[in-house]
Amino acid sequence: MAANNQQGQQYYEQPADQEYYGQQEAPQGRGGEDLTALASVPWVAIALAAHVIFLVIAWFIVPVLPETKKVDIVQSAVDTQPIPPEPEMKPQEQVEYPKDEPPQENPTEDPRITEDAKDDNNEDPSDQPNNDLAPNPNADDSNAESPHPNKGPSSAVGLGGGAGGGGGRGGKGGFAYRRARGGGGRKHEDRMRAALEWLKDHQNFEGHWSATKFSEDSTRKNARKTYNLEFIEPGKPEGDKGWEASVDIGLTGLSLLAFVGAGFDHKEGDYRETCRRAIMYLRRVQGNDGCFGPKDDDHFVYNHSICAMAMAEAYGLSGDAALRSNSERAVEFIVSAQNPGMGWRYGVKYGENDSSVTGWMVLALKSCKMAGLEFDSHKVYGDAAKWFDAVTVDVSGYPKTGYNAPGTDNARLRTSQDYLTNPSMDAINVMSRLFMGAEGWDVNNRTIKSQAKAMNECLPAWEHHKIDYYYWYYASLALFQVGGSYWDVWEKAMAKTLLDSQRGFRTEDKGSTKDTLDEHGSWDSVDAWHSSGGRVYATAINCLTLQVYYRYQKIQKEKK
């Protein structure tokens, strides 16, 4: 305790009336006696006695001392008020940067994210009208009608297609005969090229084609726009376009088919970049189940079948192994969607069937098979044949294939009820039967000949309510395979109608080029399906029709 007291005395200034009791000379008594004897007393006892005396005196004296005489024992050199602590500052957040990148001043975006970013903001077509089929005025009560009659038109029948015979795989045989050669020389080569140029110039940078925004995507910035010349709101942009919904996915597949059908792909030819972007887009929109695009629309099966066919043909033509997985998954989805023992309609194992969707699926699978992709063709084609057998019956003396019931007329959009019906389902039946191999028919089958005759009695003509690009495409593919006089009669009418109506080559367009006329090379969207796909659909499918001469090799020879 003495030690503590001495330590405290080192730091505290004592009052003036107190002695400093440090070390002094030897003390003497009043009489002069020597008091050093006290030194023999143990020092601890002396210190203790001194402290006791000090405490007794303090007990009585301190309370009456003036305030100024009071000494507080505190742990500071100066008697002061405690200083409040400084406010605690929130520590500044530390931004951690990758070790391989120096910190940036005011960083705004990470290039690693933007370079690999994928646009997940895909359009949702669920709020668009999506049920387009309605009974024709001259059809019986069994004709097709949408399961949701309150909704309007959308992507439906009319996004045509086809398939053909051949062999080999991966560009080594199946589609190699299509490969475009320098100098052209194929029939209607210049017109087909003009159509491809229009498609190339109206492709979105992301790789797809839009039914409604193709004008905004056009690279022909200085060219004048004339839109439709007649029939459907002539001269107005609105009459030039189709429905948005999910149709853009199907249009992209259809447009890509026009390029691969002419022998161009992402590996070779003049349209490598166009094909590459389209293929990349289709790969992005393919789901894990193999389906191309969302399944929000009742008619998503059309989009898928068209895209599956395009992907398979791109794979078969280029031999690019990177496309094989996409093509295989597309095939698997088609097979899984088929109704057991029958055909297809508007979904996966939908329970109902129609000849239009079934025909598209058969044709897509034929292209997949040509590309070397495997599936149980005996089972799949055999079940599809059962559907065609069920809906093909004699009507007015000839066998007629019905749309969704025996002998019914082909379907029409609710907005196109004034367009005449035609034997488009017969064309699909002939085409499918010839391409289903052992499950199909011979070219000399009686029904095939009878239906070919029906098509010859309903030839292409540039008359408003007869224009049906979808029918013209299927009938061209079917009759080219049938051959003989059936093809001769059809080909003459088909070629004249398409060549005379192609924009840039009509009398009104004489002297124009793609730099002066935005529509140069395209066809006006004035047919029975114009409200579904617009000008992009019209141009892609008519381009495919002009390729019929070399798109598919004949798989059978007609017997004389």
Description:
The chain is mainly alpha-helical and 560 residues long. It has a domain of 390 residues: Alpha/alpha barrel (Glycosyltransferase). Helix content is 39%, strand content 2%. Strands 1-4 form a two-stranded antiparallel sheet. A two-stranded antiparallel sheet has the order 2-3. α4 packs antiparallel against α16. The longest helix has 19 residues. The radius of gyration is 45 Å and the shape is globular. It starts with a helix and ends in a 9-residue tail after the last helix.
Write a brief caption for the model.
This protein is an all-alpha fold. It is 39% helix and 2% strand. It starts with a helix and ends in a 9-residue tail after the last helix.
What's the β-strand tally? Answer: 4
**CATH architecture name of the domain at 162-551:** Alpha/alpha barrel
Widest sheet: strand order?
1-4
What summary fits the major beta sheet?
2 strands, antiparallel
Query: What is the level 1 CATH name of the domain at 162-551?
Result: Mainly Alpha
Residues in β-strands, percent: under 5%
Fraction of residues in H or I helices: 25-40%
Distance between the termini: 134 Å
Pick out the low-confidence regions: 1-41, 61-173
Q: Structural class, from helix and strand content?
A: mainly alpha
Compressed to H and E, one letter per element, the order equals: HHHEHHHHHHHHEEEHHHHHH
What sort of overall outline do the alpha carbons produce when their principal axes are compared? globular
Give the overall average pLDDT. Answer: 77
Q: What's the alpha carbon Rg, rounded to whole Å? A: 45 Å
At the fold tier of CATH, the topology name of the domain at 162-551 is: Glycosyltransferase
Tell me the number of helical segments per DSSP (H or I, 4 or more residues long). 17
